[in-house]
Design a protein that fits this description.
The protein is about 55% helix and about 5% strand. The chain contains five helices and two strands; from the N terminus they run H-H-E-H-H-E-H. The mean pLDDT is about 85.
């Protein structure tokens, strides 16, 4: 089964918000089954913005509407995601220089290696 990282991203966003209790965040998602493998598609905020082109207020942490607001907030969230990746032994793929097909190939190869399959 493959899932996206939605709850990991939410945890990261909550963890950078001083108004949200870190314990509460963890409790909200505690019932979820721990995955066997998490792929962390690691890309910096500046590169992500170039790819996205536009963003919502939420994606800038409701801190403003400028590109630098987005980058500052996303870099902070990314730091939290990196901490989660280290604690959870996620498989990190650096994707800033990769297109969609290259990301798919890298993830497929990594998964095949992990499961000892031939591709």
């Amino acid at each position: 089964m493959i899932l996206d990282n939605a709850h990991h991203k939410i945890l990261a966003r909550y963890s950078v918000n001083p108004e949200v209790s870190p314990r509460l965040c963890e409790q909200v998602f505690a019932h979820l089954t721990k995955p066997d493998l998490v792929f962390f598609l690691n890309i910096g905020a500046r590169e992500a913005l170039v790819r996205k082109g536009s963003f919502t207020s939420l994606e800038a942490g409701h801190a403003g509407g400028g590109d630098e607001d987005f980058i500052r907030y996303q870099d902070t969230v990314l730091d939290q995601m990196r901490e989660q990746a280290e604690r959870g032994a996620w498989l990190t793929l650096h994707v800033a220089q990769l297109d969609r097909d290259q990301v798919y190939k890298a993830a497929s190869t990594a998964l095949a290696d992990r499961l000892r399959l031939t591709v």
